[in-house]
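User: Second chain of the day. Same drill as before.
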Amino acid sequence: MSDNANDLMSLCKRRGFIWPSFELYGGVAGMYDYGPLGCALRNNIVDVWRSIYKGREGFVEIDSETVGPREIFKASGHVDEFADLITYCKECQAPFRADHMVKEFYDNPDVLTPKQLEEAFVKHNIRCLECGGELGPVEEFNLMFKTTIGPGSARVGYLRPETAQGIFVNFPNLYRYNREKLPLGVIQTGRSYRNEIAPRQGMIRMREFNQMEVELFVDPEDKDWARFPDIAGEYIDLLPNTGDETIRITVGEAVEKGIIANKVLAYFVYTTKQLLTRLGIDPARLRFRQHLQDEMAHYAADCWDAEVLLSYGWTEITGIADRGCWDLSRHAEFSGTELKHFKRFDEPREVTVTKIKAKHKLLGPAFKTKAKAIAAAMESMSPSDVKDGHLTVDIDGEKVDVSDEFFEVAEVTEKVTGERVVPHVIEPSHGLDRIFYSVLEHAFSYDAEKDYTVMHLVPEVAPIKVGVFPLMEKDGLDTLAMSIYEKIHTHRVEAYYDGSGTIGKRYARMDEVGTPWCITVDYDSLEDGTVTIRDRDTTEQKRIKIDDAARIVGELLEGKDFASI
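Assistant: Same format as last time:
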């Protein structure tokens, strides 16, 4: 890590933002605990995210299980495909992610095959980072944590590698809850787990991490968004996969020129910019990079990563993708449950369709009391379900084989009021821990000459909003300061009382953790009922009335300029 990153991580540990997990026992790479200030900052970030998606956009929120049965992740592709390439040192057996070992020599090393990576080790003389030994063969390593559900090992389960699957498998419930209408927006935040091979980038690559996931189900033929005109003229920095240069362009132009696939995707790319800059990400160090053709998922219509410039270089902290109908189609296929939306037409239409028609007169004598149920089951199936002239239907848990002497496949013309379609999914997926760290690094400022640190956190996410100090802890100054603290400290405003050390040291402690304002009670306060309020970023100080302190802090949190109070 750079000196800047090391200094920041040292501060985070010392002041209670984050701590290495299990440090008492030597720690575990890629695992961190949130301390008191870290919890407050992280929760504030989530609150801002919720205010956009649950508040402004009206999405609903769920909370699904973190452990899922194997079938879920077989359908999603994680069992077969969710792997990174690993290599071990032949001498010390240290593991390394193979593509990361050659990233200096290739623009997109994660598309290299195991053989190509092995050849690259030889070509570029890449050795073990621990002992300098020779690297061994490259092989796949599945990143999911495996477990069993219930006693014994009868049912295999996995810790979820993403929160999204809990939303997809709940689509029928969510669809009913939304009164069977689209668009349907769903959010979820929580822990996910990936058994990373060799996490070496602090909070950027963790084995247990937090996500803020958004899944928006839309009509595949209607990828507009009602509020798109509101942001069409706003500028955004894009790095398309057609070149190496970042371009500054309006959101509307990006859609018109086909750079971003559709309006709804573009809207949420810009919404991501709004979120990140509101959290304190520097707009000058933020860009949206389009996935290269060879790194984009085969089912994705388009995919963009929000990248921020950190000590580690340009780093992805959010992905915004049009995932098409992949997710629901896969779960429908593997579960046998239809996951579709009934799209009603403005006027009934005459359509010619190919359907299965039961031969009721023949079914009765052959299947007796089951005939009616068999007929209904067959006619609800698709002609593609016919295999070698046979259909297999499920009647009360019993599989019944029906030959084509009892049904026919015929074209019929009928009036229909709508059609059933598989919704497409727009997914803004936010890495909460990466955003947390990025906010801290973009806010971090260290003056080496003065040996002074200021964390320029935006007030909305700062874990402590106001520090309250008595000049001295005597003569009633402490009592007055504590009464001010109690009036200001609410569920919305986190205040902090500090009466130890010089005022300068107390200011420094608050500046270091990003507290926007400090209030000091002095002897004049006892005489005229005023206190000093100090602004962190300008160090400007003003006298305000004690009775106005809580109101003024509220106005500052709403965005009022300090100079105007």
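Residues 464-564 form a domain with the Rossmann fold fold (CATH 3.40.50.800).

User: Great, on to the next one.
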